[in-house]
Here is the input.
Amino acid sequence: MDYLEKYYNSYDEEGRLLSRHGQVEYLTTMRYIEECLEGISDPDIIEVGAGTGRYSVTLAKKGFKVTAVELVEHNLEILRSKLDGTEPVTAVQGNALDLSAFADDSFDLTMLLGPMYHLYTKEEKLRALSEAVRVTRPGGHILVAYCMNEPTVIQYVFGSDHLREVTERDMLTSDWHCVSEPREIFELVRTEDIEELDAAFPVRRIKLVAADGATNYHRELIDAMDDYTFGKWMDYHFAICERQDLIGASHHTLDILLKE
Here is the structure.
């Protein structure tokens, strides 16, 4: 985890989600979190890989009972600094691969909004998803975020002229799937990879959502929008973010699962 800790010790994750373009992913994720919580009185929520607390702290300040689990101590310190002690949140250091501190069927909503970005083998992904499913109550929801393959091929490989570099380093398969390892920080998937993971567990997919859609292809444009135009961009985004023909082109996706 040295690469991961070094990255988050210097990267402004908080600033990313607060930027205009970062707000799209945040507002979309919050929209579906709230949808999953509808009709549940006093839900128990766990966020695994809580980062700097953008979601956990927001939910806690709304009065929801939240357990925030984060691997990187630097992120955990930022999360705790946002709390005044009155929020119903428990923040602990922990690993998505081992949630043994929590009993089976403990939470109404389990969120993995970051761990799958940094797990590089199928075995690790299955372990993290297994733990998330285990701690979720039957009838509860699991929300899992992924980084998608095609935006990196389009923007990084071709758009930023890294084709020769990634080819020489054998970072692309013959069918253009990016090959990641820890020093690249992010693991990239396709929709069929997500479906294969889901198939291993007693869950039913409710939705697979494009969390930011076309937004990150036009960051400067989005960041320069006035409030009216950005509001219309969000209207457009919400109108198309569940269209399955567009999912793979989104930088981030949100897999919404129901535990049977």
Remarks:
- Residues 71 and 94 are 5 Å apart (CA to CA).
- The two ends are 33 Å apart (CA to CA).
- The beta strands are 44-48, 65-70, 89-93, 107-112, 136-148, 188-189, 203-210, 252-259.
- The chain is about 40% helix and 20% strand.
